[in-house]
Amino acid sequence: MFVISRHPSRLARRADTLPVSHPKPLRPINLVISGSLAMNRVKRGQAIDKEAMVPQLPAHARTVVAKQQLWHELDMLCRLGVGLAPIAPEVCGALRTLVGADAAALFWMDEQGLPAGFFHEDSPASTQNLFLNEFERLFVGARETNVFALARPDGPRVGRLLTPDASYFRSNSYNLLVRASGHHHVLDMRVEVLGRTRAVVSLFRAPGARGFDADNAAVLERTTAHLARAFARAPTPPWNDSIDSLVGHVLLDAADRRPVLVDVPARLLLQTANLRGVGLKGGSDAPLPSDIASHLGLRSDLTDQPIRIPVPHGVLVVKAHLMHPPTGTAGSSAQLLLTLQLQRMRQIDVVRRIRELPLSPLQREIAALAGLGHARADCTALTGVGQAALKKHLRVILDVAGATDWDSLARALRA
């Protein structure tokens, strides 16, 4: 459930202040000076220099502010309660930046503790296909320290691979996955909810780079409470999810459910879904696995209910339609038509839009209430902000968002 923090600034003050070591630049943070200074310049007939309105903070201070905002963004995304798969790209980017890594990967687990899917920021297509298609054959075993082993509840929750033994560097997991992706150092963490491992996080650094240490592990461990909140199911928003325009189709033989045909949009959707057993990246002619129906969760008894599979960027919706051949057609058999469509959760887009606005953490929380369908009257109870302060914050929010009132703000954030 999206629960609004009464004191979001406290979360910001706990942000880690260590310098970021990865080479990717942080998103610029816009800091606007008070409106009174601008108004004084207008009264004196002076032009307002927009560049002068941005305080020139020292580099270290800008890094601290950026990290504070990143902690808050991570918290807002996880409190949506949509799981980690749909927000995996944002989560990986946040963890990489907060800890200081070259890349990040996130694996979400099924009921058996095996990875149901994953998102990796920079792994080559061939390596991702190998992981998806050959996981149980190549990467599960007594000598393999991989996601399956890292998900087990025994042992430390964070940092099993901080100081690996020599056998790890001889394993398939290291040589065919980590090393093949251009990485060497790994910092791992499992995410537990009610005693069950729901996800595994891996951060990577290149050969020759400084390895991860206990301080890095401590920062990563602080994210576990946020990540666990992603699995607390939130109420359905009072408006429908938006649907991506991309629609694909797969035709199966109804008897053995083997694939007969697949169109280009369906292949693209399956390539980006990152489902175990369905590694199709990097090529347009790779055949679909013969058991594609089981990987998509298709049951033996067909129902009208669509199958919803959490994937990066949203939910893959699968609908099955039984098609019988025309009466009197000789040699024809029944077929199953699968319709695939990516459903993008609009509440995630709301948070994405809010994070681009130059607002304080509290102002972002107020804006989120509008974007997620709450009434303005709910603000005081949910944030603890009095009416007078709320009016001041709301004036800033409306001005920054280009809205005129609460309802237009909600429409702009959900557009």
Explain how this protein is built.
- The chain has 415 residues and is an alpha+beta fold.
- 36% of the residues lie in helices and 18% in strands.
- The strands form two sheets. Strands 6-5-9-8-7 form a five-stranded antiparallel sheet.
- Helix 5 runs antiparallel to helix 7 (172-178).
- The longest helix is centred in the first third of the chain and has 20 residues, at 59-78.
- It is flat, with a radius of gyration of 24 Å.
- The protein starts with 7 loop residues before the first helix and ends with a helix.
Keywords:
four-stranded antiparallel sheet, five-stranded antiparallel sheet, flat, alpha+beta, 415 residues
Q: Which class of secondary structure composition applies to the elements? A: alpha+beta
Query: Helical content, roughly?
Result: 25-40%
Strand numbers in spatial order across the main sheet: 6-5-9-8-7
SSE pattern, N- to C-terminal: HHHHEEHHHEEHHEEHHEEEHHHHH
β-strand amount: 15-25%
Main beta sheet, described?
5 strands, antiparallel
User: Termini separation (Å)?
Assistant: 22 Å
Spatial shape: flat
What is the CA-based Rg, rounded? 24 Å
Mean pLDDT figure: 83
- Uncertain segments of ≥5 residues (pLDDT<50)? 5-55
| Counted beta strands | 9
The number of distinct helices, counting runs of at least 4 residues, comes to 16
List the helices and strands and how they pair.
Layout: H1 8-13, H2 35-43, H3 59-78, H4 88-99, E1 103-109, E2 115-120, H5 125-138, H6 147-150, H7 172-178, E3 185-193, E4 196-205, H8 214-222, H9 224-229, E5 242-253, E6 259-262, H10 264-273, H11 292-295, E7 307-311, E8 314-323, E9 335-344, H12 346-355, H13 361-371, H14 379-383, H15 387-401, H16 406-414
Antiparallel strand pairs: 1-2, 1-4, 3-4, 5-6, 5-9, 7-8, 8-9
